[in-house]
C-alpha cells in the first residue's frame, strides 16, 4: 500500500482517521496501531512518515518521488527511526539510543518520527523509558507503535496514544489475489489463514523453509498420535532447530493451531472450513484419535504457548510444557 486511497480500500476507518489528521495538520504526537500480522501496520506507518516529510505533498498523498519519500522508503532518512526487537524483545539500550538521537536537531527538517515494531515486546525498563518520551512529547515529534496485541502494552502507554484498530482482511478476496499471482487455490487458502500480506504470502509460497516447516508440523502430529515416547526427541532434534527465531516459532504454533482446528471442523461436519489440502488427509485420523474435548484443550494450550512466546518465555521451555500437556 503506497497511497492513502489504497489503504482506504482495505482499512477504511484507519485511512479516514489518518487522512483527516493530515488534511487538518493535526497529526497526533503518538499512535498505537493494533492489528493481526499482515493487516498493514507497517505500510501505514511508512505512509504516514512520507506524508509528514514529503516535499511535494499532493493534498494528503505523498509524491513517492521526492528525496524525502525515496529516503524513507529505503530506510535512510536521518529523521525517521524504525525500531525492531533485538532478539525476543525491545531493550532499554535501544530506547536509550533513540533518546540520544532525539537530542540532536533534525538533519533535514525540524521534525522527528519514530516507529516501534512489536511494541508488546518492550521490556519493563524500555517501556518506562518510552512512557517518559510520550509524557513529554517534542513539539515536532511523531511516534507510531505497532502491535498485534494492545493489551500486552502498558496501559499508561496506551492512554497516551491515539489507538487505531486494523481489521483483518477478507480472506476470500485475499485468496483470489493470490490465485491471480499464480498460487493454486488450496495453497492460497492456507496462506490466507497465516497472513494477509501479499509479499509475505508470495515469499512463503516459494520458500523451502516454509515447506519444511509444514512437513515438521505433520510429523509432530503423527508422533503425538503414534510415537509419544519420541516426542521430546523430535522437539529437540527437529522442531526447535528449524524454528529458531521468534517469528518462526510463532508460525510453527500457527500451523499446529490450523491443523487442530481442521480436526475440530471435521468433527463438526464443517469440511468447508478446512485449511489444509487433501494431501494432508493423515491429519483427519486425529478425528478418531482425540475427542472434541481434548482437541479444544490442545487448542487452548497452543494459544497459551503463543502468549508465552510473546512474553519472552524460553521457547524450549514453552514447547516442552506444551508436549507434556498434549501427552496428558
UniProtKB/TrEMBL annotation:
Domain DNA polymerase III delta subunit C-terminal: 240-326
Species, as recorded: Lentibacillus halophilus
Organism lineage: Bacteria, Bacillati, Bacillota, Bacilli, Bacillales
Protein name per UniProt: DNA polymerase III subunit delta'
EC number: 2.7.7.7
Alphabetical UniProt keywords: DNA replication, DNA-directed DNA polymerase, Nucleotidyltransferase, Transferase
Catalytic activity annotation: DNA(n) + a 2'-deoxyribonucleoside 5'-triphosphate = DNA(n+1) + diphosphate
InterPro entries in UniProt: DNA_pol_HolB (IPR004622), DNA_pol_III_delta_C (IPR015199), DNA_Rep/Repair_Clamp_Loader (IPR050238), P-loop_NTPase (IPR027417)
Amino acid at each position: 500500500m503506497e497511497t492513502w486511497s489504497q489503504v482506504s480500500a482495505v482499512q477504511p476507518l484507519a485511512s479516514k482517521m489518518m487522512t483527516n489528521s493530515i488534511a487538518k495538520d493535526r497529526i497526533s504526537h503518538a499512535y498505537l496501531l493494533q492489528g493481526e500480522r499482515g493487516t498493514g501496520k507497517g505500510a501505514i506507518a511508512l505512509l504516514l512518515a512520507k506524508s509528514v516529510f514529503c516535499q511535494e505533498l499532493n493534498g494528503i498523498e505523498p509524491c513517492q518521488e521526492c528525496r524525502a519519500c525515496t529516503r524513507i522508503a529505503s530506510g535512510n532518512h536521518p529523521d525517521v527511526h524504525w525500531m525492531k526487537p533485538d532478539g525476543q524483545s525491545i531493550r532499554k539500550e535501544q530506547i536509550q539510543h533513540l533518546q540520544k538521537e532525539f537530542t540532536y536537531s533534525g538533519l533535514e527538517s525540524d521534525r522527528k518520527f519514530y516507529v516501534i515494531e512489536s511494541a508488546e515486546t518492550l521490556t519493563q525498563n524500555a517501556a518506562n523509558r518510552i512512557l517518559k518520551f510520550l509524557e513529554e512529547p517534542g513539539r515536532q515529534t511523531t511516534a507510531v507503535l505497532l502491535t498485534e496485541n494492545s493489551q500486552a502494552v502498558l496501559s499508561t502507554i496506551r492512554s497516551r496514544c491515539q489507538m487505531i484498530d486494523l481489521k483483518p482482511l477478507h480472506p476470500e478476496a485475499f485468496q483470489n489475489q493470490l490465485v491471480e499471482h499464480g498460487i493454486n487455490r488450496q495453497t492460497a487458502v492456507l496462506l490466507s489463514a497465516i497472513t494477509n500480506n501479499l509479499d509475505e504470502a508470495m515469499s512463503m509460497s516459494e520458500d523451502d523453509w516454509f515447506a519444511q516447516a509444514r512437513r515438521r508440523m505433520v510429523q509432530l502430529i503423527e508422533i503425538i498420535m503414534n510415537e509419544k515416547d519420541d516426542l521430546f526427541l523430535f522437539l529437540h532434534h527437529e522442531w526447535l532447530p528449524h524454528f529458531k527465531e521468534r517469528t518462526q516459532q510463532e508460525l510453527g504454533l500457527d500451523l499446529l493451531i490450523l491443523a487442530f482446528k481442521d480436526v475440530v471442523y471435521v468433527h463438526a461436519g464443517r469440511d468447508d472450513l478446512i485449511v489444509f489440502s487433501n494431501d494432508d488427509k493423515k491429519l483427519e485420523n486425529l478425528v478418531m484419535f482425540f475427542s472434541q474435548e481434548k482437541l479444544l484443550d490442545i487448542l487452548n494450550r497452543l494459544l497459551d504457548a503463543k502468549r508465552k512466546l510473546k512474553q519472552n518465555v524460553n521457547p524450549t521451555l514453552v514447547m516442552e510444557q506444551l508436549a507434556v500437556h498434549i501427552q496428558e
